[in-house]
Amino acid sequence: MLGRGRNWFVVLPDAEPPYAAAERLAARAPCVLRHPSGRPWIAGDWAADELRTAVTPRGSLAALGACGATPIELRALLERTLDDARPSDGPTRPSPPGSFHLVVRGPGRVLVQGTASGVRRVFHTRPPGGPVIAGDRADVLAGLVGADVRTEALAARLLYPVGPVAAERVPLWRGVHAVPEDSALVIDSATGDGRCVRRWAPPPPVLSLREGAVRFGAALAAAVDLRTRDGGTVGCDLSGGLDSTPLCFLAARGPARVVAFSSGGRHDDDLRWAARAARHLPDVERIVTPPEEMPLPYDAVTRPDAGTEEPFTGAANAARVVHTARRLAERGCRVHLGGHGGDEVLLAPEAYLHDLLRHAPRAGLRHVRGYRALRRWPLARTVRTFLRPGTYAAFAAAYADGIDGLPPPAAAPPDPWGLGELRTPPWATRRAAEAAREHLRAALAEPPHDLLPPERPGRQAQLDVVRGSGHAVRQVRRIMAEHGLRTEAPLLDDAVVEVCLAVRPHELSTPWRYKPLMAEAMRGTVPEALLARTTKAEGLPDVHAGRRRNLEGILALCEDSRLAGLGLVDAGRLRAHVLSMGTDAPPIALWRTLACEKWLRAVEEDGDGERSAPAAPAALAAPDSPAASGPPDR
């Protein structure tokens, strides 16, 4: 249940009577902070340098993670949180540097908050007869209450290419709920009740590219400095791209010894660009894994992934994640700075075009023409898409209804809400499709809470893209931690994300420049020749090579399929797809199915025995409403 390594915590109110299972968990936890009553407040397992605390006469604060606030700032944050644990109706003040959970204990209540980016999330559950309990891992809470699997949510995870954040954020454990990323959970110690209160809102997108570049450069430098200022050895990726390479240059300016890891696919130019960058970093030690020695996709297909919280969406690339972690850990790295999230924060999703057309038609038409030429959108479909009226509810309904239609077109302009096209893989059963559809309908029943203002739907798409990346990074962090290396994603720190969100979307993204915000911000730090790169490794040839090499292991997962046992997958059709080398669905469809299959097997093998098995197919129930997690109070 608890996994291995320092990677979990639970938060308990100062409630009477204490919940017995939570007390037992606290007794087993290596790290415990207590209420003045002596009852456990925060119990879990974390490294000493991942905890910052502040105490005033009114209460206590714990920041779990990488927190750049000074002691004075922490005390001020504590007082402000005690005063402001109420709904936020507008943009909030900038976040402190870093990425951390905030846990505050005040008179009669406890507040727990993650990050707006989704890298650090908060979940909660309420056992019978006990108070609401919060934590950063859904599976740990599920173990406390013996929860079974939300089969309908699992069915939705089979859909491809990727579901909306509103659906994917719903925990796979029945009775365990997620706190929205813009909110905090407030637990009343007297009653044991919990409610979600909105405490974050995105900044208005009013900065020009030039203004944003100045602020972005400062925020990113502060994020990297936070991880390097204590010295020691720090690992970085060095691909020569515009996400990880600037982090490496910024890290090299600090007191820490920097070890840079470089590799590439068999058919891309990453290593060539990394070598160019390395010539400007003479004091950085390099680890280079040639493409022929780098694990291929699917190389770890039969090995278990870390944790049982949710399927690891990058399951096909797990071997590469592990390889990187091991190589850097061998060199004594205490932390790894990854470029995760760069595509999501440095590029606005193309749904912004709908907003731009509405508010600045001339500029909007120019951008649409540019993207149509770049993406090869068909003219008729482009016209229909941008002239199509409709509410969020209408788009959401069509989105759920269309999941078992024909595969989505390769080139298509975005819908206003960034929902895209979602499809059922050909091996999914009718039962799976119907369960997934009901789950989507429930998840999308209400417009997103973040929407500010409602006439700019592309803004919500931008937030959702960032959070989708944050959720994926959580999984990568867990796997790397299993192999001895803590991973940080400075580009997904809330302070960095807020600057990117404050830049006008049509200046953040254009059809004519690649990641202009990073290029402008890093002038003088990264050589101009490196900032001019516009290529990006795709890796599709490696995917096909890895699939051929690991065909036997992939087929082994089709045998005695746990998904088939739940009535969600037709094992024969899945096996036929694998043997045909996948001409009827893209690679992402198989990736997501294998991730769900491996996750079910991990749950089955979990040795704590505190959870029940997933429900049998005949017991597919109506999905728990995602609204059970509680909309933010207004």
Secondary structure layout:
Elements: E1 8-11, H1 20-28, E2 31-34, E3 40-45, E4 51-56, E5 59-67, H2 71-83, E6 98-106, E7 109-113, E8 123-125, E9 133-135, H3 138-145, H4 151-157, H5 165-168, E10 177-178, E11 183-188, E12 194-198, H6 209-228, E13 233-237, H7 244-252, E14 257-262, H8 270-278, E15 285-288, H9 318-330, E16 335-337, H10 342-346, H11 352-359, H12 361-375, H13 379-387, H14 392-401, H15 430-443, H16 457-482, E17 486-488, H17 494-502, H18 505-508, H19 516-521, H20 528-531, H21 540-549, H22 551-558, H23 562-565, H24 571-579, H25 587-605
Parallel strand pairs: 13-14, 13-16, 14-15, 16-17
Antiparallel strand pairs: 1-3, 1-9, 2-3, 4-5, 5-6, 6-7, 7-11, 8-9, 8-10, 11-12
Helix pairs in contact: 4-15, 6-17, 9-16, 11-12, 11-16, 14-15, 22-24
Give a quick set of tags describing it.
disordered C terminus; 25 helices; alpha+beta; six-stranded antiparallel beta sheet; single chain; 634 residues; globular; Rossmann fold; Glutamine Phosphoribosylpyrophosphate, subunit 1, domain 1; 17 strands; 13% strand
